Amino acid sequence: MSVRTIVVGCGAVAQRLYRKPLAQLAKRRLIEVVALVDPAAAHAQEMLLAFPAARHFTSLDEACGATHPELTLVLTPPALHCAQTLTALAHGSHVLCEKPMANSSAECGRMIDAATAAQRVLAIGMVRRFFPAFAHLRQVVQAQELGVLQSFEYREGHKFEWAVTTPAAFRPRSQGGAGVLFDIGTHALDFLLSVFGDLEAEEYADDAAGGIECNVAMKLRAPQCRGSLDLSWDVPQVNVLRIVGTRAEAALRLDRFDQLAVTANGVFVPRTIDQSFPVDIKRDGRRIVPLSYADAVLCQLVQVLRAISLGEQPAVAGAEGAACIALLERALDMARPLPEPWLSASQRAAAARLHGSAR
């Protein structure tokens, strides 16, 4: 039977990432989109083109009461995730909440407690877990192919060009804004946590200066080694994760689904990437190797459906989403200004005074 599904938030994430895979699942009668929730009618109208039988609501509580969903997709700005997840769970719906899970560990705790009490699935949308090269690198590390881990370097940055439909992410964090740390940073730290098992922030610096950060530099400690994380919304980076061990080194292209190389005799050798994921609810059903965002989101949605119907664990459950937020919070607690030598002395002093004032 089709899983009755509500989409909450019909902006850029829903339109660019979720509409196509949801339409595929609806065509296969695995999902029935029964409601679209968004205060902006124009945003909902874009999604109604793909799901004409769905009803538009401006209130999630009203939508749940009228349509009785089995699955709610929370695709709104982060400041809304906690309240909307709690509402959906209170109506007996399972939830897939987009990253970041919430704006604080306290909110994460309330979401996890509510899901446990309701006996419902709470999955966090970390779509990079379904990138085949990422999954392969995780296996390489866990199989100790690199030997004893010595260091890692994660660098990701580009000019921000996401076609946003709301300015929510660009407000100060105290007003619900996100910044690069809660945007790219949640993807980066979630994946690093999945690879290394644990991480602790040793140093953290950004350029927030009273607003939200566009550039971040972190020093991190994993159980076996130390490493760095550099993120940017305005400075192009090499977009690579390098992990060095005593036997070999791995290099993962962060902007590609299938680009991973591991050294052999000191020379990087590309790996054949064939990691696949289910796209069927049957236990031994069809699988694919995701080669696009749409493929990866499709696999993520199917994995949540399998968690609901087969009792499998979500790729990222509430506890893992909360661990990522807790790490972000600990980093922010030690925040210092990034060096900006191009500023005058008085400008640097002003930026230092503003830094962290809106957190």
Q: Could you describe the 3D structure shown?
A:
The strands form 3 sheets. The protein has a 9-stranded mixed sheet with strand order 14-13-12-11-7-10-9-8-17, with helices on one face. A 6-stranded parallel sheet has the order 3-2-1-4-5-6, sandwiched between helices. A two-stranded antiparallel ribbon has the order 15-16. With 359 residues, it is an alpha/beta fold. The protein has helices spanning 12-27, 41-48, 60-67, 81-90, 105-118, 132-142, 179-196, 293-310, 318-333, 345-354, and strands at 3-8, 31-37, 55-57, 71-74, 94-98, 122-125, 149-157, 200-206, 215-221, 226-232, 240-245, 249-253, 260-264, 267-270, 277-278, 287-288, 336-337. The chain folds into 2 domains: 3-120, NAD(P)-binding Rossmann-like Domain (Rossmann fold); 129-277 and 323-345, Dihydrodipicolinate Reductase, domain 2. The N and C termini lie far apart (46 Å). Strand 15 and strand 16 form a beta hairpin.
What is the element layout, followed by pairings?
Blueprint: E1 3-8, H1 12-27, E2 31-37, H2 41-48, E3 55-57, H3 60-67, E4 71-74, H4 81-90, E5 94-98, H5 105-118, E6 122-125, H6 132-142, E7 149-157, H7 179-196, E8 200-206, E9 215-221, E10 226-232, E11 240-245, E12 249-253, E13 260-264, E14 267-270, E15 277-278, E16 287-288, H8 293-310, H9 318-333, E17 336-337, H10 345-354
Parallel strand pairs: 1-2, 1-4, 2-3, 4-5, 5-6, 7-10, 8-17
Antiparallel strand pairs: 7-11, 8-9, 9-10, 11-12, 12-13, 13-14, 15-16
Helix pairs in contact: 1-8, 4-5, 5-9, 6-7, 7-9
